[in-house]
Amino acid sequence: MSRIGRLPIPLPEKVEVTLKKTTVTVKGPRGEKELEVPKGISIEIKDGRVMIERTEETSEYRRMHGTTRAILANWIKGLSTGHQKTLLVKGKGYQGEVTGKVLEMQLGFSHKVLMEIPPGLEITVQPGQNAFTIIVKGNDKQLVGSYASVLYKIKPVEPYNLIGMRYSDQFVKRKTVKTIT
Fold this sequence. Notes:
This protein is an alpha+beta fold and 181 residues long. Helix content is 20%, strand content 40%. Strand 3 and strand 4 form a beta hairpin. The protein starts with 8 loop residues before the first strand and ends in a 14-residue tail after the last strand. The mean pLDDT is 92.
């Protein structure tokens, strides 16, 4: 059995999962999503937990077993509490703000960087001295992670002075200044 696929998904109080023939609907306080269950995968709800099993031991069914479980678990968490990524931006004169549906950032370039915020995401900017924090929140884990990675690629952290963007849980090994010997 798949290590991930065999784990039961606990259901929070506010989330409701309903099964139809080949579809699973997840409803929560933050929205609703529907998943078409792949062939060879069966889902059942018992004692406030969602169990996912496969009907045959082929490589395709093993692959889909863990994937289906991970998608449902992320949806259940996202529709109950939501997903969040935090980016720390450090640099002299770096600034950021949200105006309407656009994230405006001054990151040491000759121009402002304007990033459109996709629907389904909520962006919060917390200013600081020579730094600011960007918090990306949303229901869809994939959308939150992909938007955070697009922001990160604009100005990744450099290892000498730790200037640029980095994730809040990212460890950057600081390098020593290059010297002539």
